[in-house]
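Tokens as discussed.
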């Protein structure tokens, strides 16, 4: 009779997320994942499912942590414009300091084009970020911190498109100064 292996699923998901983050979906083997999670493959299949189901859980875990970070950042900001600036600066520093980049951005290129479920998760995450930024822009306009002529949705799209492009630049050139300069340029553009 097979014995049931008990493990902390949240810790296992976090460890598997790190593997996917480092190696990508296709680069992470089942062995890599189960070794990191400190479980055997039968425990994985019996509790979480296959590699794809694990990846979905990991991506959702990653996105939830990112959302909590955004919420905490907004609560600590002195104003809506300060929250937007903090967001941009945090995005640039994450790009510079995290060798693995953004799991969501990496997944958008590696897995999303051929996987409707993953694409749906990523679209929902992008919509959340876009709505978050658009809401901050609207508040900043109402507070007189930004011009009333700004289109909050368009500006939110511009911010998202800007920092996602920085990931590619950093992968290609690993130039921290370049990323920080681009972040400051974006801040100047939205603050004027």
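Sequence:
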């Amino acid at each position: 009779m097979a014995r049931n292996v008990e493990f902390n699923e949240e810790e296992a998901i976090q460890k598997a997320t790190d593997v996917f983050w480092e190696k990508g979906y296709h680069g992470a083997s089942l062995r890599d994942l189960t070794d990191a999670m400190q479980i055997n493959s039968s425990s994985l299949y019996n509790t979480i499912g296959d590699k794809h189901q694990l990846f979905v859980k990991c991506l959702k875990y990653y996105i939830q942590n990112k959302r909590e970070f955004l919420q905490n950042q907004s609560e600590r900001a002195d104003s809506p414009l300060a929250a937007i600036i903090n967001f941009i600066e945090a995005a640039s520093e994450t790009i510079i300091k995290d060798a693995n980049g953004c799991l969501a951005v990496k997944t958008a290129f590696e897995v999303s084009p051929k996987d409707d479920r993953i694409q749906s998760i990523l679209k929902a995450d992008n919509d959340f970020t876009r709505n978050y930024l658009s809401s901050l822009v609207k508040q900043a306009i109402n507070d007189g911190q930004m011009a009333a002529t700004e289109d909050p949705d368009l500006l939110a799209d511009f911010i998202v498109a800007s920092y996602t492009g920085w990931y590619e630049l950093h992968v290609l050139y690993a130039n921290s100064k370049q990323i920080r300069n681009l972040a400051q340029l974006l801040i100047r553009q939205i603050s004027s």
